[in-house]
Amino acid sequence: MKEQHTLPTLLVVDDDLFIRRQVSHIAGHYFRVRCSSSTVAIAESILEDVDTLVLDLSIPGGDAVAFMQSLARRAPQIRLILVSGLDLKTIKFTASVARQLNFRSVELLEKPFTRKTLVPVLLRDIGLAADVPDLPVAGGTAAMDFEAELLRALQQSEFVSWFQPQVRLYDRGFLGAEALCRWRHPRLGLLGLGEFIERVETGPLAMAFTLYMADEAIGKFKRATEAAGLGGHLSINLPVAVLEDPKLASYLGSILQKHAFRPQDLIVEITERGIGADTAQSSATIANLRIRGIRISLDDFGTGYSSFEKIKDIAIDEIKIDKHFVSDAVHSRTSQTLINAALRIAEELDLQVVAEGIDTEPVAAWLASRGNIIGQGYLYSHPLPEDALIAYLQMQVSSAEHADRRVSGFPEISDMKTAHDPFVTVKQVLPSLSKRWKA
Question: pTM value?
Answer without folding.
Answer: 0.64
